[in-house]
Amino acid sequence: MDQIEIVVAHPERATLRVGGVFLKIDIDPGRTDIEVEAMALAPIPTPEILWRNPPVLALAAVRGAALGRLGQPSTASAAAWAAAGATVRQLHDAPLPPWSGRSPEDLAAELDRECGWILANDVLPAKLVTRNRQIAEEVIRPWRSAFIHGDLQIDHVFVVGDEVTGIIDWSEAGRGDPHYDLAVLTVGHPQHLDDVLAGYGVDLDVDVIRAWWSVRGLLGIRWLVEHGYDPFAAGSEVDALRARM
């Protein structure tokens, strides 16, 4: 019998691994609905769905290893990063999913709310929050919606050599700014942004990608604190905000 590995666990969700099977448990069936439908619609490699018995979704493990981990140097080649960019481009070129996404107006309101919480609770210095909120203003504009993954963290992209073998964790997928996916992928490894863009093959606004780095940091702080994670851990949200200074 394989050991049970706890991949992630907090009051809203948990993911367990038993051998080559991942068991995802989510108290919100709507997130799982999105994950299942997004994987069915995405024209790129995704995990095989073995079965679903709410609140549990069973997925087969994806071949290969993650592109990297936050807070650690990536050992993946430049070609692997470029392959990730090319794969994300395929997703962004696909037909839009039927459900709606966040609007620029929604984003502006969310940023103001989260910045207010950070300052009211003395989590970060006001100068750091104010500067990153100013940078974040760059993304508060109309954007061309694409089919985005929505949480394209580096450890959600799996590769074998220079081939992307699968992208996991689709519960945040929907319509959104394509710059956002590339920002989430590279926020902890900005030195690989050029590789990703080379593989993506279409000019995107690098300043907007960098502004999304600030957005990602500001929006993530409260969630991390309230769910028992350390926003000051190496490579996480606070590091990303400090880098923008």
TrEMBL record:
The record's annotation in Pfam families points to: APH
Look up the domain of life of the source. Answer: Bacteria
Protein source organism: Nakamurella sp. A5-74
The coiled-coil regions, if any, are none
Name by which UniProt lists this protein:
Phosphotransferase
Query: Which range is the signal sequence, renumbered to this chain?
Result: none
Q: Tell me the classification of the organism that encodes this protein.
A: Bacteria, Bacillati, Actinomycetota, Actinomycetes, Nakamurellales
Q: Where is the Aminoglycoside phosphotransferase domain?
A: 43-201
Output the InterPro entries linked to this UniProt entry.
Answer: Aminoglycoside_PTrfase, Kinase-like_dom_sf
